[in-house]
Fold this protein.
Amino acid sequence: MLEAAADLIARQGYAATSIAQISQRSGTNPASIYWAFGSKEGLLAAVMERAADAFFARLEPPRAGDVVSWLAVQAETFASGPEFLRLLLVLSLERREGDPAVLDAARRVRTRAADGLSAAFAVAFGIGDPFRRRAVCDRLARFTLMLLDGVFVASQIESDTTDLRKAFETIALAVQVTGERLMADASRNVRAGASSTDDDENGERA
């Protein structure tokens, strides 16, 4: 049922896909679909999150200090999941004016992706404390998602000229440079905060 819905929506869009079509493709009674998911929107949210689970399960964890190599090899995983990525993009754009359940599911998927990237960057950059995690990894994760959005759109529009491996290698270099800059900024902020605290304490003793 979920596979049939994902295939139809990815091919013809959410609005053009009906419960009757999903029922016919999957061999499931329409009443059973409504009983299990409550609505077309509920089915759609389940489709998206199931596809996200399968996609994220294929991602390899990073090694410490190796963010460039780790990101570069994710091109193969990215290339293996175009149906899920296309579905997420179509639904995010097509349903942004309504259906809170669908939009909430899309946001949960993207939040999960951002959290996963943030955790991976924490390992790759060797960041343990919460302040640097927020200042560096969380920002870097959102930045990376934006870059991946662009790569996916390019791969769909210009599939014959988009080299995913080279694109991911370029993204990896951009992430490495940006991450190092964010780490330097975070360190300066920590030192500035410590200096300010020392000055306050010295002023109170004086």
